[in-house]
Amino acid sequence: MPYRYRVVDVFTETPLEGNPLAVFPDASGIADRTMQKIAKELNLSETTFVLPPTRPNCAARVRIFTPTMEMVFAGHPTVGTSFVLLDEAIIPKTSDRFALDEKVGAVPIRVESGGRPRIWLTTPPIHFERSYDRAVCAQALGLDASDLLDIAPQLVSAGNPNIYIALKTKTAVDRAWIDLAGLRAIKNGQQDAACVFVFTPTPEGAYSRMFAPEHGVGEDPATGSATGPLAAYMMRHELVPAAAGTRFFSEQGTKMGRRSILYVQINGREGIDGIEIGGYVTPVAEATMTI
């Protein structure tokens, strides 16, 4: 059977930057195991498969796969899939609000009109969990403890657990690297999979990188699911630049040559009315896979 798919670059206005995503707009008839095999075959950070919704008031169901596992929620697949559904009029192009049915629940989407649409998702509930030893984190990243801000690294999740480690400079962020052994050293026996998110505050918001060796992704160019918790972590530790106010952005993927801009909108005092993550999407390819 032939299945058509689109490839789009998410969180960028420039082709071949941002985070690439494959979207199968009509995945009806593709078995779960085959979805995972397709994601491994394409070998992008994520591949999405669109199906009829199972939750009320959702426009479509979206399943998200990395090369090795299915995700309950992910940001760049949510934004990129929303763009494809609008671009192909599967969701009416005039729609400015709708929801996608994902494993984490119904994810609200807002479309900001303009010369080209900027698509926003509302981050699912954010949970602060355990903290980690700064010295162990520094060693695992190949850094000195003096490269870290005097803030405890912490696991924060909006469906996908991320360990946030605040660094002092962009240079330190660019020098950081972690593999499975380093991640296991940080986790110290913790069994659940987690990603490592390193960043430094900037006048515009943050300069960031994300590593996900347990998900089969060495480094991710843009991580929307991690950027809402990043904003919450930065607010908790007073790292949001005063000039930025309630809207700023995280620059991610620059070190790996795929610069991404993830916009953050904080609604209500300290995000009590939700944290939105938004960005632009650039289409780059269309193809058919026969399976």
Question: How would you describe what is shown here?
Answer:
The protein has 291 residues and is α+β, with helices and mostly antiparallel strands. 20% of the residues lie in helices and 38% in strands. The chain has six helices and 18 strands. It has an 18-stranded mixed sheet that branches. α3 runs antiparallel to α5. It is globular. The chain starts with a strand and ends with a strand.
Can you lay out the helices and strands and say which pair or pack?
Blueprint: E1 2-10, E2 19-24, H1 32-42, E3 46-51, E4 60-65, E5 70-71, H2 75-87, E6 97-102, E7 105-112, E8 118-122, E9 127-131, H3 134-140, E10 154-157, E11 161-166, H4 170-175, H5 180-187, E12 195-202, E13 205-212, E14 217-220, H6 224-236, E15 247-252, E16 260-266, E17 275-279, E18 281-290
Parallel strand pairs: 2-3, 4-6, 11-12, 13-15
Antiparallel strand pairs: 1-2, 1-18, 3-4, 4-5, 6-7, 7-8, 8-17, 9-10, 10-11, 12-13, 13-14, 15-16, 16-17
Number of helices: 6
Order of helices and strands: EEHEEEHEEEEHEEHHEEEHEEEE
Range of helix content: 10-25%
CATH class of the largest domain: Alpha Beta
- What profile does the largest beta sheet have? 18 strands, mixed
Characterize the overall form.
globular
* N- and C-termini, Cα separation: 5 Å
| Overall tally of structural domains | 2
The total count of strands amounts to 18
The CATH architecture designation of the largest domain is Roll
CATH superfamily of the largest domain: Diaminopimelate Epimerase, Chain A, domain 1
What CATH calls the topology of the largest domain is: Diaminopimelate Epimerase, Chain A, domain 1
What ranges have pLDDT less than 50 throughout 5 or more consecutive residues? none
**Gyration radius, rounded:** 18 Å
Structural class: alpha+beta
- Average per-residue pLDDT, rounded, comes to 94
- Beta-strand residue fraction: 35-45%
